[in-house]
Amino acid sequence: MANVRLENITRRYHTTLAIEEINFEVPDGEFWVLVGPSGCGKSTILRTIAGLETATSGNVYIDNTLVNEIPARKRDVAMVFQNYALYPHLSVAENLAFGLKMRGVDPTKTQEIIQKVAQSLSIEHLLNRKPKQLSGGQQQRVALGRAIAREPKVFLLDEPLSNLDAQLRDDTRAELKQLHQRLGITTIYVTHDQVEAMTLADKLVILHQGKIQQIGDPQRVYSRPKNRMVATFLGNPPMNILPITYGNSLFWIANQSLTCPSAIREKLQPQEGQKFDLGIRPEHIQFITSENVIDDLQQDVWAFEKVPLDVEVSVVEPLGREILVRAYIPNSSQPHEQYSIQFQVPIHHHLHPGDRLTIKLDLNQILIFNSTTGDTLYP
User: Fold this and answer.
1) Which residue, 169, 312, 183, is CA-closest to 254?
2) Whole-prediction pTM value?
3) Which ranges carry the ABC transporter domain (predicted)?
4) Res 163: pLDDT
């Protein structure tokens, strides 16, 4: 096992900048996930670590050894690709043994390793089959097995689950996490799927347009994003972003006013007419019914300074356990400016497009962003 350290890694393709000033260190044995939208540079970073790409500038260290000039085959890393890259003319056993054969491992020792790896991945019954005789999930296990059999210092996984259907992807993701817990090999995993990223990672590296936006443990990044891009990328449904204007100690959305908490006023010292973006996740929005108003009154927690908003339902999407409601905040003074907002309600509520509702926002969970740069200003 080994740590992986990137220092000021930049990669240019002629005049196109793919990644810029990438700095992070993955400690020995940890599982880190590079996540971000398509084209953000995730795979370029992974291929640079593997030695399949050459950095324009910067240094790559594996096990505290500078590997810039070391070819890919000698870096002692194992990479699993999106398309699995199995040899179609070889059996599963031969695919598993290929890396060991190239390294000159004794055939008897190779067979022992193959049997052990196959057993750990539950593919013993597939050893004599060819890749074309396997399902996508089985091919994925063989690709993982080939990497494991080499006993590398580092695993590099480039969207290995993206070709699987939803249920198999969920099952395989859980198996992959258990596998890492057993083996403890330093792993760097690339995905654009934020659910995979959140569930697998010890640490997330959020990327956008070739630059690192934030590094941290999944829950911390989710609850305290450094900017609007991170806030909206993580979470499903995504965080709501609402343009607001400060005035008279209030925040204004369209022609509706919201209380501006004193903690926000003290930290931001906002000026009259200053514009911000307010962020709030769908799970921190509650739609008001006569029943929950009574409950709140009885508990002495409901008051209108707790940020009510009037909205109009545009789309209702039943999800089984709850209903996702897509609504908009009407603006009578400027009807062409309608701000969308999403939230979830219990499945027993019967809502329809055109329904007018009052919702309340949890003030303890709102974020304030710079409306120009997108940087998080509060908290």
Assistant:
1) 312
2) 0.86
3) 4-234
4) 78
Could you count the other beta carbons within 10 Å of the beta carbon of residue 177?
A: 13
Q: How far apart are CA 355 and CA 347, in angstroms?
A: 16
Chain-centroid distance of CA 213 in Å reads: 12
> Residue 157: beta bridge partners?
80, 189
CATH architecture classification, 240-378 = Beta Barrel (2.40)
Which residues, listed in sequence order, are joined to residue 237 by a DSSP beta bridge? none
Residue-wise pLDDT for 23-40, tens only, equals: 999 999 999 999 999 889
Confidence at residue 154, expressed as pLDDT on a 0 to 100 scale: 94
* The dihedral formed by the CA atoms of 47, 53, 57 and 58, expressed in degrees to the nearest 10: 40
CB atoms within 10 A of CB 53: 19
Query: If one looks up domain 4-233 in CATH, what number appears?
Result: 3.40.50.300
Residue carrying the six token digits 């795979």: 43
| Distance, CA of 52 to CA of 238 (rounded, Å) | 34
The mean pLDDT value of the chain amounts to 89
What are the counts of helices (DSSP H) followed by strands (DSSP E) for the chain?
10, 21
Phi-psi region of 177 (alpha: psi -120 to 50; beta: other; left: phi over 0): alpha
306: helix, strand or coil: helix
What are the angstrom distances between the C-alpha of 267 and each of 253, 264, 377? 20, 5, 9
The closest alpha carbon to 208, from 68, 372, 76, 22, belongs to: 22
User: Would you list the domain boundaries of the chain?
Assistant: 4-233, 240-378
- Residue 161 CB coordination number (10 Å): 23
Extract the residue ranges of the chain whose pLDDT is less than 70: 1, 289-307, 332-337
Q: What is the DSSP letter of 127?
A: T
pLDDT at 140: 84
| Cα–Cα dist 216/224, whole Å | 10
Token pair in block for residue 73: 């085959």
Question: Is it true that the peptide bond before 88 is cis, omega within 30 degrees of 0?
Answer: no
pLDDT score of 297: 43
